[in-house]
Amino acid sequence: MTTADIVAQERSLFIKAKALEHGFDFCGISKAGFLENEAPRLEKWLSLNHHGAMGYMANHFDKRLDPTKLVEGAKSVISVLLNYYPEERLPEGDDDLKLSKYAYGTDYHYILKEKLAALLASIQEEVGEVNGRIFVDSAPVMDKVWAAKSGLGWVGKHSNLLNREMGSFFFIGEIICDLDLAPDSATGDYCGTCTKCIDACPTDAITGPFVVDGSKCISYFTIELKDAIPEEVQGKFSNWIFGCDICQDVCPWNRFARPHTTPEFNLPKQLSGFSNGNWQEITEEVFREIFRKSPVKRAKYAGLKRNIEFVISGE
């Protein structure tokens, strides 16, 4: 082992230890470079229009596949996971209107960016000048692919990252930097012959193992789509009014999910025990108060009302 290898290894161990100190649950490292295997998959996915109205997914094709085009001199991708599985949950019975668990608390973009900024500052304090950028869904970065290459899990048949210790209820973030670091090895695929996520999807959005037609996903309809929701999916939302957790909830690996330790992700007191009547009668003033810092504000008041009315009328 060369001196450079020893330095890279020591720096990697330091970064992983600091990541845990800053509140992340897992941290892994991979070498920055062109994602050769992903290029044809992404091209096919886009050609099939699986991105629907999410036009931004077709932008910056080259940057999406090569982090060195995002950060000059990039040598390493530091991937982190932050658990968001809640201890207190909204009612999720067959008749209850449902909100995706990732949207319970403060928008994760704020929390992850703050923690990643602190981690990058720690790295710069230890190493010196580092050219690095923080990414949390803020640029064309294939976060699940990099997390998998960093040994943090594997991409399951539902296209979410799965971790053997805690399942899939994680947010993912990256620091792409010009440091030479010791990369981790990718893990295997532990989905086996299981097809529970595919079988459970009410809109058939998982068209086959590891292939998700985003334009058929309940999360797409309730968050991304700004037009009227197509009538052909009426009655198929299983009462989800913002996002959907079905494929994760049925996944056997999520029996290992345990409550997060990030207070900002907790269910707001105003939402505790929220009933269908509360959802149907929600005013714009209440919406703004409860969801001021929440991912739900992406749908806006009109969008959430649209979703609620669509679900209620399809029962």
TrEMBL record:
Enzyme Commission number: 1.17.99.6
Compartment(s) of residence: Cytoplasm
Binding site for [4Fe-4S] cluster 2: 201, 217, 244, 247
Pathway participation: tRNA modification; tRNA-queuosine biosynthesis
4Fe-4S ferredoxin-type domain segment(s): 181-211
Substrates-to-products reaction catalysed: epoxyqueuosine(34) in tRNA + AH2 = queuosine(34) in tRNA + A + H2O
Cellular component GO terms held in the UniProt record: cytoplasm
Subunit organization: Monomer.
Protein name as it appears in the record: Epoxyqueuosine reductase
